[in-house]
Queue: 2 jobs
Job 1
Amino acid sequence: MENERLEEKVGFLKRKNIEISAKRYLQDALSAMALGLFATLLMGTILDVLGAQTANLFGENAVSTFLIEIAAVAKNMMIMGAGIGVAVATALKAPPLVIYSSVVTGAMGATLTGFGITLAGGPAGAFIAAALGAEFGKMVSKETKVDILVTPAVTIIIGGIAAKLVGPGVGWCLYRLGDAIMAATVWQPFFFGIFIAVVVGLALTAPISSAALCIMLDLSGLAAGAATVGCCAQMVGFAVASYRENGVGGLVAQGIGTSMLQVSNIIKHPWILVPPTLAGAIIGPLSTCVFHMTNIPVGAGMGTCGFVGSIGTFTDMGFSLDVLWKVLLLHIVLPAVLAFIIDRIMRRMGLIKDGDYKLDL
């Protein structure tokens, strides 16, 4: 009897496309959350910079005013959590009514405060509220004759409960952790420059979202600068080290796409992870101690992916020739040179062989 009930529950979850796994939540949903952030906060930031620079070059005009206005709306969609809600529900393969209702659950998760916690859940709260609301919404979807009422109601109510009970606490913990990391980086810029560059860089190459992580931690300042160069070291490092195997296509796909493409090769040949990671460990303290690079949360975990890390750096530090050459040096030149040298040394030692980096492009 118990086995039959268990089989029924498993069958129900499978029929509703509900998969309780680290891959579904930490890889699929978290990565989708990052896309939601890019479509709102990132694009808003880029448009805001374009509007401001247009005004600086040509004086305030209709184009600059328009760009700044729409940028404010785009960024507000992240602050309100709407973009995150839709992205997470889509990644969880929710039906349309649940996706549309997740606009509300994402907003509640980002903006509602909890019982005894005055801090809103922020991006983490939006993620939790949208994920829980979507999963429960999927359970009841098309199970009644009044689906148009039941499905949105369940999605929003469950999402609201999560937004009040869970989101603020998780958001508070992540914000405080981010504050601690930033304070520690100021206190010990050398060692934490190494630590952050390596950890966030590895998170970028792993099948999780380093960008979402940095945004949930609200990472900024020197810590964000170290995170950025760590990500750049992974992307540019893999692109350059694997050029012999993957050519120009691999250079572009990894250099401004993602180093995550190498995950299967890393599992088979772990030594290939050393050149970009060691490059990040070297550049990290240069970023914090020598060049004092900073960034904003949305750029911290992106590296050279679409040049978002560099755009974030210019947003935080201002666009000037001094900042430009620092960005070129730390984000592109040093990662390329160091990873290339370390890779060639390891090839001569027999630790890395031709074909270890090969991608099916």
Note: Strands lie at 113-114, 117-120.
Job 2
Amino acid sequence: MKGDFDGIIDMTGTGSVKWELTQKVFGEESLTPMWVADMDFRGPQAVIDALKRRAELGVYGYTFRPAHLNEAVAGWMERRHGWRVDQEWICFSPGVVTALNACVQVYTEPGDRVIIQPPVYPPFFKSVQDHGREPVMNPLKLVDGKYEMDFEDLAAKAETSRAKMLLLCNPHNPVGRVWTRGELEKLAAICERFGLIVVADEIHADLALNPHRHTPLLVAAPQLAGRTIVCMAPSKTFNMAGLAMSFVLIPDPEQRKAFQTFMEKAHLTAINPFSLTAADAAYRHGDEWLDRVLAYIKGNAEYLRDFLTRRIPRLSMVMPEGTYMAWIDCRPLGLAPDELKAFMVSKAKVALNEGKGFGEEGAGFMRMNLAAPRSVLEEALAKIEAAVNAL
């Protein structure tokens, strides 16, 4: 019997990037799309119902952010993460990438150095380089199949580069680490010692896989409240990235005012009435749906791990502690990054994100989206298996 997340949803004609632009982006037909970081699952019924009620009003005028949305955000943070946030901290942005770019421009100057920890989400690089700042690399270390922060290197880079800011990805995309309280405390000590402003991308906070638990940076290190900006969103959690809604938590009043002023001058403060409706409903009524979808994603991760072990032993995966991404190690195939990309597209007929796009440290890896029906995952793995066997 099929479960809630096993059904295939026909996205034809919807403008879906994942399903309708795959051929254009990858240049091949008949690809199984497992690249764009959104889910193939229907969102919570409470959200769907709330959107229907809002749509039926027939009036979609200018919309402000009401107090009850802040209440819903704060309630979710306390309920799911044990973090009691002041509602005055909450600012809004169309997306976390927009917020990252805004923070780099607001809190640094051209020529300033910004520390990032590759392999990491590609917009981290662009948010630094596109605005005339200089990235300083503090690569993660892969130790016995698990990524770790290199704190010694971080301290050395912070001191010698005189960096102004650090961009933190927690949980980490693409390697799936959910940083522990101890790791965050070590990071915080270095940031405090060298005066680094921290912009924490915690968009995957709600997607920690059991038994792992997300720890917000400011829960682990409340002393960083005067120098930390936290970016979060309902988009990955509830599969509503297209609704363009995220929120930014800024405890320091001066930092908050600077961020809000920048967003107002850029005319980025308007909110879509459907974004407001969906986020409010999700944060109030989405707990049970999220628990079920997390169990399904974990099951997909375990299925992938077991499949690789039994049937494609030349490949392996870094088991995710959070997110719905799998970071697959394809280095034993002996293919250069461009060859590996071409192999997956032309031979395996599967659309994945190439690891090199996450930094040089990602060369030889591929990122696979696991938020798909099990049958889609099975199809993709069977195609990869056949292609690898034909090498």
Note: The chain is about 45% helix and 15% strand.
